[in-house]
Amino acid sequence: MKRLVVPALMILALLLGGCGKGGGLEKSFEEERIKWSQAKELSFTADIVAELADSSFECTLQCSRDGEGILLEVLKPENISGVKARLNENSAQIEYEGIILAVENESIGETSPVTAAAMIMKALTKSPLTQIWTEKAQERELIVSELYISEREYARLWFLKENFSLVHAELVSDGRAVVKCDIESFTKE
């Protein structure tokens, strides 16, 4: 009997020892999330590549969140540079050269190049964390998190380990990364 109990206890100890993996990362992530949520302004610039059903689209957007909602501004391509969208819980407005068009949030649609930066901003502060781990890429230590958006979609975000600066994001729909964003100038004030 003793011969069975000791190995069983050793196996149990090994299994329980592995249960805490990522716990410190989760706590650190949630602490940063509180800071991001409480910041007066949170912003980043995203170089976005979207793989659509029958084509791809590239653009650069400036995304910021303040007390009034999320503001998106197209920086590239040049032919639509300057188009802005302001999104909040109840409404959305699109602006270009002083002309403002109010639209219903539901008409904006699901994952797209235009909504990607706003979805990432919302995921940063509101979406439930489903997984978190570390990895090394290009001599940098990164923290990778997966955040639940819907039954079909989640955000995968890469942060520098030393300061939780967002450097890359992907929006995954039906198991496929449909939007990839290289993030620059991630700031909180």
Map the helices and strands.
Blueprint: H1 2-19, H2 23-38, E1 42-51, E2 56-66, E3 69-76, E4 84-87, E5 92-96, E6 99-103, H3 113-125, E7 129-137, E8 140-148, E9 153-160, E10 166-173, E11 176-188
Antiparallel strand pairs: 1-2, 1-11, 2-3, 3-4, 4-5, 5-6, 7-8, 8-9, 9-10, 10-11
Explain this structure to me?
The structure is a single chain. The chain is α+β, with helices and mostly antiparallel strands and 189 residues long. It is globular and about 50 Å long. The relative contact order is 0.17. About 10% of the residues have low confidence.
Structural class: alpha+beta
**Overall helicity:** 10-25%
Strand line-up in the sheet with most strands: 6-5-4-3-2-1-11-10-9-8-7
Question: What is the end-to-end distance?
Answer: 63 Å
Indicate the mean pLDDT: 84
Number of strands: 11
Strand content: over 45%
Radius of gyration: 20 Å
* Major pleated sheet: 11 strands, antiparallel
Helix-strand pattern, N to C?
Answer: HHEEEEEEHEEEEE
Unreliable spans: 4-21
Report the principal-axis shape. globular
Put simply, the count of helices is 3
Provide a compact summary of the structure.
The protein is of the alpha+beta class. The chain is built from 3 helices and 11 strands; from the N terminus they run H-H-E-E-E-E-E-E-H-E-E-E-E-E. Helices cover 25% and strands 48% of the residues.
